[in-house]
Design goal:
Elements (H helix, E strand, L loop, with lengths): L11 E4 L3 H12 L4 E4 L3 H8 L10 H11 L2 E4 L2 H7 L2 E4 L15 H10 L7 E5 L7 H12 L6 E5 L9 H6 L4 E4 L3 H10 L1 H5 L4 E4 L1 H32 L3 H9 L20 H14 L8 H23 L8 E5 L14 H11 L3 E5 L4 H7 L4 E2 L3 H5 L4 E4 L4 H4 L3 H7 L4 E4 L6 H6 L3 E4 L19
Parallel strand pairs: 1-2, 1-4, 2-3, 4-5, 5-6, 7-8, 9-10, 9-12, 10-11, 12-13, 13-14
Helix pairs in contact: 1-3, 10-12, 10-13, 13-14
Bound molecules: uridine-5'-diphosphate-xylopyranose.
């Protein structure tokens, strides 16, 4: 909602219009700021200028269109335009995993600072939001100081972003906390102005140094990844001990010291953040000489990857011991529901692995089909869940879209060759599926009572 005092507000640029940058730009425009989004991709800028979101994110496209219609939000490929426009420049470019290494690739960040720095001829605050190894902000501050014509009026700050894909709008407008790594009271005051609305709504604002701000983000993602892998490690134990990880997770989650969030067992974490962030953290800790402090993250990563292997094993078991000549229907390829993101997607990884092992694999996802097709053209792409499972010996639920949770087991049962399903996300009501004659397996849950199940491992007597 635009505030009445918008005309007096500082002007904002957002450099890099991926998930993070586009959500940040549209939300700040919604809060009443004048915002210019800048990206090096002309195609992306053209799409955004037309009001089209180049990715799937619930609730963001209407906000983008409202921002454009209000005149407060615009887009450009020009860094000169950004330098002339902005009082606060938010840097939201990607920091992916470096090719062939654990460390983060900071080339987009340094390129952004190198392009912007020499053009900054008026007072401004350059504020990094990208997730970076601790120490990056100090390095960039030095780089910026050497580039800007007006070193005394241009400052660097770090303000990590904690948004989750699929919840980008609410996480940006109503953040759990705002962390501001600043070098001066002026930097803090500017960020307090930018976040005046969420601060007034009671959202905590923590001002700190640059290194702590960078580390908060990395530590938060390391903690979330650890929590997910912890419950998935318990799933491994449950499988061996014939215990039920879903009940275990629920019982643990009732302890307020533990909490239920990030405690959903299943195929594990993927996406553009958690996997690469814990690896970059390990690489940075090694550089800092404190590798043992985070060496547990290697195990966190290992547990996570073992879930994918376990999923393939369960699917093979239901396929009768081999994928050769079998048909596998896959529901979901995005790394999580309400997203079209397939970066390091456990679902797509499992689908591609099973195809590589000789199965004919047909996939369906409500949003991620075009990305998945580009990444894995060898898979078959169906137009619906029913089409994906038609003729399947085994069906796999790999991303827990609501559409799949709500699927009618009877209707899907009519399409498959055999009623065998592995629930990779513990998202289905197994009793309902079994009542419809499905042989239903899930990660971390005891073997079902097979009495009455019409599905059988393919090839079983
Ligand atoms: C994550 C962090 O949550 C966010 O704060 C940070 O800014 C970016 O990284 P995101 O990658 O969007 O956000 O997804 P998140 O919802 O955290 O899920 C990450 C992965 O973990 C997904 O693959 C999800 O399926 C998986 N997950 C999550 C679980 O397997 N179990 C859980 O209990 C929670």
């Amino acid at each position: 909602m635009a505030s009445p005092h918008s005309a007096t507000r500082r002007r904002i640029t957002v450099l890099g219009t991926g998930y993070l940058g586009t959500a940040h730009a549209a939300c700040l425009a919604d809060l009443g700021f004048e915002v210019l989004g800048v990206d090096v991709s002309p195609a992306r800028i053209e799409a955004l200028t037309r009001g089209e979101l180049p990715f799937y994110e619930p609730g963001l496209e209407p906000l983008l269109q409202a921002g454009l219609a209000s005149g407060r939000l615009s887009f450009s490929t020009s860094y000169a335009a950004a330098a002339a426009f902005g009082d606060v420049h938010f840097v939201c470019v990607g920091t992916p995993q470096r090719e062939g290494a654990y460390a983060a690739d900071l080339s987009q960040l340094t390129a952004c600072i190198d392009a912007l720095g020499p053009l900054l001829d008026r007072p401004c605050l350059v504020t990094g939001k990208s997730t970076v190894p601790v120490g990056t902000a100090a390095m960039l501050a030095g780089r910026l100081a050497a580039l800007v014509p007006t070193a005394d009026t241009c400052e660097l700050a770090w303000n990590p972003e904690f948004l989750r894909e699929g919840h980008a709008v609410q996480d940006t407008l109503r953040p759990d906390r705002i962390v501001a790594g600043v070098q001066s009271g002026r930097g803090e005051a500017i960020l307090r102005e930018v976040y005046a609305d969420p601060i007034a709504a009671g959202r905590p604002f923590l001002a700190t140094d640059l290194a702590t701000a960078e580390l908060v983000k990395v530590a938060a993602n390391a903690f979330l990844a650890t929590k997910i892998s912890f419950i998935n490690a318990m799933a491994e134990v449950c499988e061996a001990a014939h215990a039920d990880v879903m009940t275990l997770s629920e019982a643990l989650g009732h302890d307020p010291r533990i909490g239920r969030a990030a405690l959903r067992p299943g195929l594990g974490f993927g996406g553009g953040c958690l996997p690469k962030d814990i690896r970059a953290f390990m690489a940075r800790a090694e550089e800092l000489g404190v590798e043992p402090a985070v060496s547990f993250l290697r195990e966190v990563d290992g547990i996570n990857m073992r879930r994918r292997a376990r999923m393939v094993d369960l699917a093979r078991e239901l396929a009768g011991g081999s994928f050769e000549g079998r048909t596998v229907g896959v529901l979901g390829v995005a790394f999580k529901p309400d997203s079209d993101d397939i970066r390091d997607s456990p679902a797509l990884d499992v689908a591609a692995t099973i195809h590589g092992l000789g199965a004919s694999v047909s996939v369906y996802d409500p949003a991620a089909m075009s990305h998945a097709r580009r990444a894995h053209p060898e898979l078959a792409f169906a137009c619906s869940a029913t089409e994906a499972v038609t003729g399947a010996d085994v069906t796999l639920l790999l991303t827990e879209w609501q559409e799949f949770r709500d699927a009618d087991p009877e209707k899907l049962g009519e399409a498959v060759a055999r009623r065998n399903i592995v629930d990779g996300r513990n998202a289905l009501d197994a009793a309902r599926w079994r009542a419809a004659g499905w042989h239903c397996r899930a990660l971390g849950r005891p073997l079902p009572d097979r009495r009455g199940a019409k599905g059988r491992p393919a090839g079983a007597a």
